[in-house]
Write a structure and sequence with these properties.
The structure holds 2 protein chains of 2 kinds.
Chain A lengths: L6 H7 L3 H13 L8 H19 L7 H19 L5 H15 L6 H19 L5 H21 L8 H25 L29 H5 L5 E7 L10 E7 L1 E2 L4 E2 L11 E3 L3 E8 L6 E2 L1 E2 L2 E3 L5 E2 L5 E2 L8 E8 L2 E3 L5 H7 L8 H13 L3 H14 L3 E2 L11 H9 L1 E2 L1 H14 L4 E8 L2 E3 L4 E5 L3 E9 L3 E5 L1 H5 L1 H5 L2 H4 L8 H6 L4 H19 L3 H12 L5 H24 L9 H14 L11 H11 L4 H16 L5 H13 L9
Parallel strand pairs in A: 14-15
Antiparallel strand pairs in A: 1-6, 1-18, 2-8, 2-16, 3-4, 5-13, 6-12, 7-11, 9-12, 10-11, 16-19, 17-18, 19-20
Chain B lengths: L9 H13 L7 E3 L6 E4 L1 H20 L2 H25 L3 E4 L5 E2 L3 E22 L5 E19 L4 E3 L3 E6 L6 E8 L4 E4 L7 H13 L10 E6 L11 H7 L3 E5 L6 E5 L9 H17 L3 E6 L2 E6 L2 H12 L4
Parallel strand pairs in B: 4-10, 13-14
Antiparallel strand pairs in B: 1-3, 2-9, 3-5, 5-6, 5-8, 7-10, 8-9, 11-12, 14-15
Helix pairs in contact in B: 2-3, 6-7
The chains are: A alpha+beta, B alpha+beta.
């Protein structure tokens, strides 16, 4: 057995349907690979390569029982790995393996077409994971390859080279895009799923988690992924006021903060000034239920739950882009009367850990009579002592991480400061809690849309002060005011490792990044977020009247028909006349001149037969008729032609005048 | 590749065919396919593709996935365009049929087909199905002309026409099957199938020679020996040479062509029916012609005087082919 490959083999391979089917399948599976278990990638690769070898050696195709064993074992493996076979990821792996196996049973056009059709289905499963612009561009390229595969399968051994196939596929794709767009805009949407979505297996989610321990926010900071975008109705508040409240953490075990039990305060109270801020948040899917809001949300939509912690929660996990409209107030007072539950939870201290911190807290309580003074003193300590704000703090691995931070390393990120500050307050007898969320954001000067990225994740504290209620205290603001007033980038030391996005936004690419951000935002708003509400809004605005369901259906039918008509006009090209060779055209002129004399060339009549009839009728024109006929047959039927002869021929026809005797 | 029209049960296809036959233009040796005689339906693959498309659409509705919607609509639009392209692949195609060379019953008649178009466009994967279900392919690859052959098994002797031809294409995506039934006017002369065995005819040869009056005597000069071939006359066997070498050898005579013989209707067993008789006569003509004999044909209604050569052979075979028709 030799595996030598030469150029001719490659040539036949690149025209073989199996090659194209394998190429298509591997391309549609590629974007999924990061989610696949390693063994399944190996299995699929082996199956694909083996099938390619079988093109030359059809007898090597595996037996049915072997394929069955592969399916049984890989299904078992997937079930073991994912706990289900029907989740988004498990399902796509299973489908990919099934297709790779089916490939070995496929030897006819029918089976190839089945595989290509199912490849389209794998593309759509990828859209459940990512709907970004780069994904779409990649998918369009894949669709072109799939179209080329379909052409190859149906070309019946015609010698069409791959360039021609590529051109045809791209042409058809471009012609299909406007039709698709009209369908997309006008296809009536319904709200809510048709059937209950299956419970998802655990997927890796991006964004904040609902616990906070040293290191987990500084890890998240490295990601420049968008968390959410905010469109303010009026002007955008100052940077240091942009606290995006996400979660409130009550329970501390000495190292990690958690949400703990539900806050059962009977009636939370909120006092605000009249100065309200209207804005719309477009939240990226984060696979969690909680929502972010500008401190402090006042008015919320009906389908959002307002919890006792003044934190918003959605009805279900946010698995796709989610848009909500809120009103917040920057001047507010919450819970001027603290509830017993909040008081006890806000003072709870984990026993037997961080003893130095507890001691310090008690000292402070003895030293100052006012809670405000304690807060002020601690913040001053952070600001004036040897504390550092850094993305890469030394590991605090012991049993007393807060003690280690406060009294030894003194280097930390927002989670270290928020955690130690809150514990210190509790030790000093002031009810305190940790709040997780984002702080700041980048305003895109092109769109005035605020983009909040994962790198803006933040943690701060809230303490309960007599007469003022829960007050936000951000210890990070004391140590690194630039972080709050400007950005993380401004607060970090020059030597700190910055993410690529951060580096780019400091460079000449800054403008480009804003453009990209604006495009991405539009894409999210108008494409990914296009739903029944947006459809109605858009159509009502376009047609200047209220639109209902039946109008949309009517519009769809009319619009699509019109678009199809226009597209088919471009395909049929009725204005496009058949291109006639100049020789034939000139000869037709000659025949026309003769037919004016009553001599019409019959369709079956050859040029020479016709010339004999013409000479018989017009003997005085014998020379020119003969010359024209000879030149015509020469130009028309002989391979070598010169432009000079052609122009001579045209000249002769032009000068030919059957009504005039030639000059002697 | 067989046709695959899933939505069309046999009787429905026959119904359409009957309907199409009524509206078919009169037979001609040249036909331009126009949209009035062009039919198109989705293939089995097309239906499968449509089902995947629906699956994608329902998935998109359920997950409220915009790009899922887009993909479903893109696939739908591509399929529609595919339909137009398939239609255009054979629309306004010029089909010209030529004369087929004569064949024997049971052989394939090969009608030369020329496909042409006014502008050089890409029209590959055009298929022609003859009335006996043989399929031939033709591709117009940015040219104005291409040649192909219609293959059709000859079933009866006499003049045979190609019958109803189906020209179809599924290019580019195989989702739609566009076709047209063509009534092309051409004919092919079909000779009777030659009888499979040589021997009975050869045996009667001697008697045949004896019964003819115009044997030229003393002119058969021995000119050489060659290896025995099936159909050689037994009285030409070179017995001496066979005895020497152990191989069958035949004597050659330079004047064989001048030896007149008659192939007669009457010389065959009277019990034979017409077609068998014609078949045996056909075999005799072929054998006689192979040995360059000077032979004549005598069948009821036609008598062809002894002669030789290709033209004579064809004339005799034609007489057999058209006997009684």
């Amino acid at each position: 057995m030799k595996f030598s490959i030469n150029k001719a083999d490659l040539q036949t391979l690149s025209q073989h349907p199996v090659f194209w089917v394998v190429l298509s399948l591997s391309l549609v599976i590629t974007p999924h690979l990061s989610r696949f278990p390693l063994w399944s990638i190996f299995l699929i690769t082996c199956l694909f390569s083996w099938r390619l070898l079988c093109i030359k050696h059809p007898r090597w195709l595996p037996a049915k029982w072997l394929l069955l064993i592969i399916i049984i074992f890989s299904s078992a493996g997937l079930f073991f790995h994912f706990g289900t076979l029907f989740g988004k990821t498990a399902g796509s792996v299973l489908l990919s393996i099934l297709l790779a196996v089916k490939l070995h049973e496929s030897q006819s056009r029918r089976e190839y077409m089945l595989l290509i059709s199912l490849s389209f289905f794998i593309i759509v499963t990828n859209f459940l994971f990512s709907q970004s612009i780069p994904t779409v561009i990649f998918m369009l390229c894949i669709i072109v390859v799939l179209l080329m595969s379909m052409i190859t399968i149906n070309q019946n051994n015609a010698a069409i080279d791959n360039i021609a196939k590529l051109k045809l596929s791209i042409k058809m794709l471009l012609q299909a895009l406007p039709l698709m767009l009209i369908m997309f805009i006008l296809f009536p949407r319904i709200s809510g799923p048709l059937w209950k979505l299956p419970e998802e297996e655990k997927t890796a989610s991006s964004g904040l988690s609902d616990t906070m321990s040293p290191g987990n926010i500084s890890n998240l900071i490295k990601s420049s992924a968008v968390a959410f975008r905010v469109q303010f109705k009026n002007e955008i508040p100052a940077q240091q006021q942009l606290y995006w409240r996400g979660l409130v953490l009550w329970y501390f075990d000495g190292r990690t903060w958690e949400r703990g039990k539900q806050n059962i305060t009977p009636e939370p109270s909120l006092l605000t000034s009249k100065n309200l801020i209207d804005y719309t948040i477009t939240l990226q899917a984060h696979e969690k239920k909680w929502l972010y809001a500008l401190d402090m949300p006042v008015d919320i939509p009906d389908d959002i739950i307002y919890t006792n912690n003044f934190v918003l929660r959605a009805q279900h996990k946010i698995t796709s882009l989610y848009q909500y409209h809120l009103t917040s107030s920057l001047d507010y007072q919450i819970q001027r009367e603290i509830s017993p539950w909040e008081k006890s939870a806000g003072l709870k201290i984990p026993p037997q850990t961080n003893l130095k911190t507890l001691l310090k807290g008690r000292e402070l309580a003895a030293q100052f009579s006012q809670a405000e003074e304690i807060v002020k003193h601690v913040l001053k300590t952070f600001n004036q002592d040897e504390f550092h704000y850094t993305l890469s703090p030394p590991l605090t691995s012991g049993a007393d991480p807060v003690d280690q931070f406060l009294f030894q390393t003194k280097r930390g990120f927002c989670e270290h400061y928020a955690s130690s500050f809150t514990l210190l307050m509790r030790a000093a007898g002031i009810p305190a809690r940790v709040v997780l969320g984002y702080q700041g954001g980048t305003i895109n000067p092109l769109t005035q849309v605020l983009t909040v990225r994962q790198s803006e994740a933040h943690a701060w504290s809230e303490v309960w002060l007599q007469g003022r209620g829960w007050v936000r205290i951000d210890p990070t603001a004391a140590i690194a005011p630039q972080r709050i007033e400007q950005s993380l980038d401004a607060a970090l030391d020059v030597n700190e490792a910055r993410s690529l996005h951060m580096q780019l936004s400091n460079s000449v690419f800054k403008e480009l990044l804003f453009y990209w951000d604006a495009i991405d935002n539009r894409w999210n708003q108008w494409v990914i977020g296009y739903d029944i509400a947006q459809q109605k809004q858009l159509l009502s605005r376009l047609l200047n009247q209220q639109i209902n369901f039946s109008d949309i259906v009517l519009l769809l039918v009319i619009g699509f028909t019109l678009a199809l008509l226009i597209t088919s006009l471009f395909i049929f090209k009725p204005w496009h006349k058949a291109k006639v060779e100049p020789v034939v055209e000139a000869y037709a002129t000659f025949c026309k001149k003769l037919s004016a004399k009553g001599l019409t060339r019959e369709t079956y009549e050859g040029a020479f037969d016709f010339s004999h009839r013409a000479i018989a009728l017009l003997p005085e024109q014998k020379n020119s008729i003969q010359l024209i006929t000879r030149l015509y047959s020469k130009l028309r039927y002989e391979p070598s032609q010169s432009d000079k002869q052609l122009s001579q021929f045209k000249q002769l026809v032009r000068e030919f005048n059957p009504g005039r005797t030639p000059k002697s | 590749m067989a046709e695959n029209l899933p939505l069309l049960p046999r009787f429905a296809e026959r119904f359409i065919q009957g309907w199409a036959k009524k509206r078919q233009p009169p037979a001609s040796h040249q036909i331009e396919i126009d949209r009035h005689h062009l039919y198109i339906l989705p293939t089995r693959h097309g239906v499968l593709y449509f089902m995947v498309l629906l699956l994608i659409l329902f998935g998109a509705i359920n997950y409220e996935n915009s790009l899922g919607f887009m993909l479903a609509f893109l696939l739908g639009s591509l399929a529609l365009l595919g339909m137009i392209y398939t239609h255009q692949n054979i629309n306004k195609l010029n089909v010209h049929i030529g004369r087929a060379e004569p064949v024997f019953v049971g052989q394939d008649m090969l009608f030369p087909i020329s496909l042409s178009q006014k502008t050089p466009q890409l029209r590959p994967a055009i298929q022609l199905r003859s009335s006996t279900s043989q399929i031939s392919h033709a591709h117009l690859l940015n040219t104005t002309h291409t040649n192909s052959q219609l293959v059709c098994t000859a079933q009866h002797r006499g003049y045979s026409s190609p019958g109803q031809i189906k020209l179809f294409s599924e290019f580019p995506f195989g989702l739609f099957h566009a076709w047209s039934w063509l009534n092309l006017d051409s004919r092919c002369l079909v000779y009777p199938a030659p009888y499979a065995h040589h021997t009975p005819i050869i045996k009667s040869d001697q008697e045949l020679n004896g019964s003819t009056t115009n044997i030229k005597q003393g002119t058969d000069d021995f000119s050489g020996i060659r290896q025995y071939q099936a159909g050689d006359l037994p009285n030409h066997m070179a017995w001496k040479a066979i005895a020497k070498t152990g191989k069958l050898q035949t004597k050659l005579f330079s004047n064989e062509t001048s030896q007149d013989m008659w192939i007669r209707w009457t010389q065959l067993e009277p019990a034979l029916d017409t077609e068998h008789r014609l078949s045996q006569l056909c075999r005799m003509i072929l054998d006689a012609s192979k040995h360059s004999l000077n032979f004549g044909l005598d069948i009821p209604g036609t008598t062809i005087p002894p002669s030789h050569g290709l033209q004579h052979k064809q004339q005799c075979l034609k007489a057999l082919a058209l006997f009684g028709l």
